[in-house]
Structures are given as structure tokens and as C-alpha cells.
Design brief:
The protein is α/β, with parallel strands linked by helices. It has 2 domains: about 1-80 and about 235-335, no CATH class; about 85-205, Luciferase-like domain (TIM Barrel), CATH 3.20.20. The chain contains 12 helices and 14 strands. The strands form 3 sheets. It has an 8-stranded parallel beta barrel with strand order 1-2-5-7-10-11-12-14, surrounded by 8 helices. Strands 3-4 form a two-stranded antiparallel ribbon. Strands 8-9 form a two-stranded antiparallel ribbon. Strand 6, helix 3 and strand 7 (about 110-115) form a beta-alpha-beta unit. Helix 5 (about 135-150) packs parallel to helix 6 (about 190-200). The longest helix has 19 residues, at about 135-150.
Length: about 325
């Protein structure tokens, strides 16, 4: 199993830093690599509020993922760099493929590409587009996957879709990885899973999952594979989980209280640690390793740590360091793949 980290990306991401600076993102990336983390991840919003999570409706600034990952290629050497996930509507698919191929090349072949259908209505409003209904968003995603996947795979692409077009498009210089950088779809609905099976190399979902709930979605994924004539074993699986580790139970509770006190206001109001554990990667190092073994048994190949109470928040660097020590020193489970 591989271990990833959701990097700080938004003006709420790091305690005491608003606005967030690139130097802080880079520091987290460099330290995570030193601590044994295998991959680093950024999401894709023009800005983000936390009302969905019980926090402020303030629009927090965001670093753009593709250009930020390009900068991080110079600061890192080993870790893979990924998008979790790119919003289909923000970029023409052929132009996106060109940017991603360049990023894969300048990173030395370390790119993982996640695409998604979108869920945050202000992203659409900001670009003058009414947020489509879910079915249309999936249709748009499928077209983008066809164009991006084809071009990253080195093919000349002519595609006349309803939402995306390409006319004898090529990507030159091509991406460095062959046959292409891993391409996956983020989400959990049946149509999202079918898009992943039909047009991608893998599937991701985040951030709160119990094994039973995940197992049910695995059943849906396997049914989609059966309908498409695809071996489910060929689908790469990653899972994002909120995560927190303590050296012992008392330390864990102290770290949770610190996260509550210093994190975005409102998010953890009325929440205690015992309830917050549910569906998250939480515990002592030994408990963390036991939980990882369970996810490994379910076929999860990469677990991406969300070390905070909301996406792409990093509560404190020492929380990342302790989690890395627990996860990346997890013996045979951590070393597989």
C-alpha cells in the first residue's frame, strides 16, 4: 500500500496563515517526502467555502493545482504528484491534456491524473456557466476522459462531442509515462463508476468511509466491470480519509482538541473524538496500522491522508510527521505495490 498526503492549498489550510503562501505548501511537500510519504495531492477549485462542512461561508483563496504541482517538481525528487480531482468544466479537454503531458515530463514521470464531474456550484458561476444537472455533468466528464485519455496515451485525437471537441489534436512532446500517466475518476455514484471502468485506469473516493460502506461501492464497481467485460483487478483504487494519530490515547485526544480549537470555526462544534473516529483513519500507531491492513484487504492501493477536519487542511505538521511514521513504517502492508 502507498500513502499519500493532501497538501495545504487554501487560505484556511494552515493555522495562522491567511493568505496561504507557496513557501508553506513547498515546506509541507518537502517534509512529507522526507518522512516517507509516497504521493502529494491538490484539489481543483477557484476558491472554496466551508459551509458544507459546518464552517464559514467565506470564500477562501486557492492555489491552482497544475501550476502548483509544476512548481513542486523542482522541490521534490521521489514522490508522485497528483490531482484530486480536476474539475472537467474549468479547462478545454485538449488544452488540459497538453498541460498534463508537460507536467508529467517535467516531473520525470511522476504524475497521477484525477478527473471529476464537479459538485461546487460557485466554480461554475465564476466562469459564467450554469451548473449542469448531475447527468449532464457525467456526460461532460465522459467526453473529457475520452479526449484527455487519448491524448495522454499518444494518439492523435479527433472527437466531436457535445461539450468537448478535438480536431487531429496531438500532444507533443508527449507525456513521459507509458502508455500514459495513470488516469482515474473521483466520485462514488453508479454512473461515475461506469465512467471510470469505461474510460480510466482507476477510481478514487474521499473523505469519510467505513469499510462496510466502501465494500458496497466495491460491489457496484465490480458489477460495472462485469458489464463492460473488464477485470476488476485492472482498476487502481485509492481512498482519501481524514486522519489523526496519537502516540497513545491521551495524546490522541489532546491532538483532537487542538485541531478543534485551532481549525476553521464551527466545523467540529458538538463533535467528540469517539464519534469523529467513525469512517476516518484515527488511532494510535498500532491502531492505524491495523486499519490500513483492513483497507489493504479490500484492495485499496493508495490511502491519501487528509490531516485535518476539512479537505486540504493540515492541522499541524507534527500530526503529519506522526501519521507518516505510523503509516510508512507499517511493515508489509505499506511496502506492497
Amino acid at each position: 500500500m502507498r500513502i499519500g498526503l493532501a497538501l495545504p492549498q487554501y487560505d484556511y489550510s494552515v493555522v495562522g496563515e491567511d493568505p496561504l503562501t507557496y513557501e508553506t505548501i513547498e515546506r509541507h511537500a518537502v517534509l512529507a517526502e522526507q518522512w516517507g510519504i509516497d504521493s502529494l495531492w491538490l484539489s481543483d477549485h477557484l476558491f472554496l467555502d466551508l459551509a458544507k462542512y459546518g464552517g464559514p461561508a467565506t470564500r477562501y483563496g486557492a492555489f491552482e493545482p497544475v501550476s502548483t504541482l509544476a512548481a513542486l517538481t523542482r522541490a521534490t525528487a521521489r514522490v508522485r504528484l497528483g490531482t484530486l480531482v480536476l474539475l472537467e468544466a474549468l479547462r478545454p479537454a485538449a488544452v488540459l491534456a497538453k498541460s498534463l503531458a508537460t507536467l508529467d515530463r517535467v516531473s520525470g514521470g511522476r504524475l497521477d491524473v484525477g478527473l471529476g464531474a464537479g459538485w461546487y456550484e460557485p466554480d461554475y458561476e465564476a466562469i459564467g456557466l450554469a451548473m449542469p444537472r448531475p447527468g449532464e455533468r457525467i456526460d461532460r466528464l465522459r467526453e473529457a476522459l475520452a479526449v484527455v485519455g487519448g491524448l495522454l496515451g499518444g494518439a492523435e485525437c479527433t472527437f466531436a462531442g457535445t461539450y468537448h471537441e478535438a480536431h487531429r489534436a496531438t500532444v507533443d512532446p508527449p507525456s513521459l509515462q507509458t502508455p500514459r500517466p495513470p488516469l482515474f475518476v473521483g466520485g462514488k455514484g453508479d454512473r461515475v463508476l461506469r465512467a471510470a471502468v469505461d474510460l480510466a485506469d482507476g477510481w478514487n473516493t474521499c473523505w469519510v468511509w467505513t469499510p462496510d460502506a466502501y465494500r458496497e461501492r466495491l460491489g457496484a464497481l465490480e458489477r460495472a466491470c462485469e458489464a463492460a467485460g473488464r477485470d476488476p483487478a485492472t482498476m487502481w483504487r485509492s481512498l482519501g480519509l481524514y486522519a489523526l494519530c496519537g502516540e497513545d490515547e491521551a495524546d490522541l485526544r489532546a491532538r483532537f482538541e487542538r485541531m478543534r480549537e485551532t481549525g476553521p470555526p464551527g466545523v467540529l462544534d458538538g463533535m467528540d473524538l469517539d464519534r469523529w473516529r467513525e469512517g476516518r483513519l484515527v488511532g494510535t500507531p498500532e491502531q492505524i496500522r491495523e486499519q490500513l491492513a483492513g483497507w489493504d484487504d479490500l484492495g485499496v492501493e493508495t490511502v491519501i491522508l487528509g490531516v485535518g477536519a476539512v479537505p486540504f487542511q493540515v492541522s499541524h505538521l507534527d500530526d503529519v510527521e506522526l501519521l507518516a511514521a505510523a503509516c510508512c513504517d507499517a511493515g508489509p502492508v505499506a511496502s506492497r505495490g
